[in-house]
Amino acid sequence: MVNTVQARVNVTVADAQGARVFDVSLVNFAIDSTPPTVVGFNPGEGATGVSPTTTVTVTFSEAMNAPSAQQAFSLRRVDTGTYAPGTSAWVGNAMTFTPSVPLAQGIVYRAQVNATARDASDPGNPLGTIRTANFTTADVTPPTI
Q: DSSP assignment of 22-49, as one string?
């Protein structure tokens, strides 16, 4: 396993008579063998009082294959297992998920990125491990008497 942006292929071929042919690739190419990691979630693990209109941001250690990371991401209620629908947007190595409707109040949610998310290298190194963060939304309903 090697990581480099200056890889080249050097080929030496010898025929039955001992004649040799040498060839070297003309330009450098990159090799990325390091799997990506999740640097963090916002809201973070254990956050409380999170606004029901929050967005969830996942920051990765490197550029990601956006479709694979978006497909690997989910946000769901822990009590019912119901998934929150929404849309994703990217800025650099950070994906922000915006729920389509406000989240329920006073509920624990789990943001999760499955191990299938891949980085932007070709063919893409998988994340390799599931990462999660639980947070609790705020109860903003005023009490009634």
A: EEE-SS-EEE--PPP-EEEEESPTTEEE
Q: Which helix (H) or strand (E) holds 72?
A: helix 66-72
pTM: 0.80
**DSSP per-residue letters across 76-115:** EETTT-PBPPEEEEEETTEEEEEESSPPPTT-EEEEEE-T
C-alpha distances in Å from residue 49, one per residue of 99, 112, 125, 135, 140: 17, 19, 36, 8, 9
Percent above pLDDT 90 for the chain: 67
Mean of the pLDDT values across residues 20-29? 72
N-to-C CA span, the chain: 66
CA-wise closest residue to 97 among 57, 50, 131, 142: 57
C-alpha–C-alpha distance, residues 36 and 31, integer Å: 14
Q: How far is CA 111 from the centre of its chain?
A: 12
Give the separation between CA 139 and CA 125, rounded to whole angstroms: 40
Rounded distance between C-alpha atoms, residue 97 and residue 49, angstroms: 18
What order do you get walking across the sheet with 131-137 strand by strand?
47-50, 131-137, 108-113, 73-77
